[in-house]
Amino acid sequence: MSDGALFDESVGRGPDADTWTVGELAAHLGRLLVAALPDDVWVAGQIRNLSRANNGHVYFDLVEPTESGRAPEAQLSVTLLAPERELVNRQLVRAGGGVRMSDGVEVRIQGRIRWYAPRGTLQLRMHGIDPAFTLGRLQADRDRLLATLGAEGLLDANARVPMPLVPLRIGVVTSRGTAAHADVMAELEASGIGFEVVLADARTQGPECGPSVARALALLAAASVDVVLLVRGGGARTDLAGFDTEQIARAVAAMAVPVLTGIGHEVDRSIADEVAHRAHKTPTAAAASVVAQVQAFGRGVEERALSLRRGVARATRLAEARLDDRRARAARAAARTLARADDRLAQRGAQAGRAAVRSLDRADRRVEVVGSRSVRGARSRLDAAEARLGAREARGVVHDPALALARGWSITTTADGRLVRRPADAPPGTELVTRLAEGALRSTVVPDPTDAPEHAP
User: Is the CB of residue 199 less than 8 Å from the CB of residue 232?
Assistant: First the structure.
């Protein structure tokens, strides 16, 4: 059949040559595609919108890879029927199981282009896959990113962040409710240490893995955690491809606290592991390393406390021994000193006794001398005093009022005892008392007639 015959509108037409029925056009398109592409084709692209039906069929779009968030420039619908799916799965298993078909994975697949009339769509009927293509792309991308991060000094940026001595506030980045989440929590709780866990839920597979994990790390950076566990359970190499992205690598390198990874199984090693502070083989191992550090710190404290107690006990024993020795030496020295003091005291007591006897003898003699002098002086003073007393008694007799009264003198006072010496001391009306040698007289002062004022004629 010539190329011109493929596009001859009369081929397969009904009686009405001017109009196509839908079935006729669909059948014609199917024949054209079979004729144009009769053999298998290999197509490379990125999986999008993958879904698995209950009947075992798989449907997805194969798109031209673009930057995240941009619409694809070209896409092709792919159908993997259940029988061919088993064949493809065997191919993946023989290749080591490193590739799993999921959104975001770049693949090279084999199939035939067909027109699916019931839906009016062009499909690639897939029946083969090239795992080496996917793994090679992943490795090439990984190598390029590692070279870039190394040139910028980011591979060990987080490793240079100091690890806290006792990390008790733990940030965990993983998908909530997954086996990785459960393993981490079980390990932390089994330790019996009072860890405080801050979970940042994130997608850990597919195209959203990078942005989701980066957002979770940013949230924990603002949550004042001591350390971050970035964990995910095992899977195919393509399942873990999200942890080979530049976005996650830079987010981990920028963290101000240590990031410990536990991604996949023991044989898996992602770029996130390369830039982390410390990489572990599993989520459980990552959590166990934090538990071990806190337990080691606790043991260190206990050992230091025990060593301190032992040191104090040794020092106390040595001090007590030295104290006992010094106490004994001090007791012996005190006994010797007291003995010498007793001897000196006895000597000085004897000396003092002899000196006291001599002093008493001298004092007795001085007392006798002074006593005799005092007696003679006292007698002289008594004689002089008696003479002075006699003279005073004679003068007193001379001035005794009673003698004056006996000679006829009298003493006049006011009734209240004031001595009257002149008339002014007793104005008219004053009551007077006059003492005589025998008794007293009372009188009242009356005006003197001679003192009356003269009256004019």
Answer: no
Spatial distance between the Cα atoms of 223 and 417, rounded to a whole number of angstroms? 113
User: What's the pLDDT tens digit per position in 159-200?
Assistant: 999 999 999 999 999 999 999 999 999 999 999 999 999 999
pTM: 0.53
Which residues have a Cβ under 8 Å from the Cβ of 45 and sit 6 or more positions away? Answer: 62, 63, 64, 65, 75, 76, 106, 107
For the 153-294 domain, the top CATH level (class) is alpha beta
**Fold of the CATH domain 3-139:** OB fold (Dihydrolipoamide Acetyltransferase, E2P) (2.40.50)
Domain boundaries of the chain, sorted by first residue: 3-139, 153-294, 404-445
CA 62 to CA 104: how far, in whole Å? Answer: 10
For residue 433, the surrounding DSSP H or E stretch is strand 431-435
Q: Exposed (0-12), middle (13-18) or buried (19+): which is 385, by Cβ within 10 Å?
A: exposed
Q: How many angstroms separate the CA atoms of 350 and 173, rounded?
A: 100
- The residue type at 355: A
Using alpha carbons, select from 3, 247, 256 the residue that is nearest to residue 148: 247
Look at residues 111, 109, 161 and name the one whose alpha carbon lies nearest to residue 132: 109
CB under 8 Å to 174, separation ≥6 — which residues? Answer: 180, 181, 184, 199, 201, 202, 204, 229, 230, 231, 232, 283
Q: Calculate the alpha carbon distances from 366 to 281, 361, 377 in Å.
A: 116, 9, 16
Give the Cα separation of 416 and 432 in Å (integer): 9
1-44 pLDDT, tens digit per residue, is: 444 444 454 455 555 568 899 989 988 988 998 888 888 899 99
Instruction: Quote the Cα angle for 319-323-327, to 5°.
Output: 175
Please tell me if the domain spanning 3-139 has the same topology as the one spanning 153-294. Answer: no
Helix (H) or strand (E) holding 271: helix 271-275
Looking at residue 132, its amino acid is A
As a whole number of angstroms, the distance between CA 200 and CA 228 comes to: 10
Helix (H) or strand (E) holding 122: strand 121-129
Closest C-alpha to 277, from 242, 243, 228, 241:
228
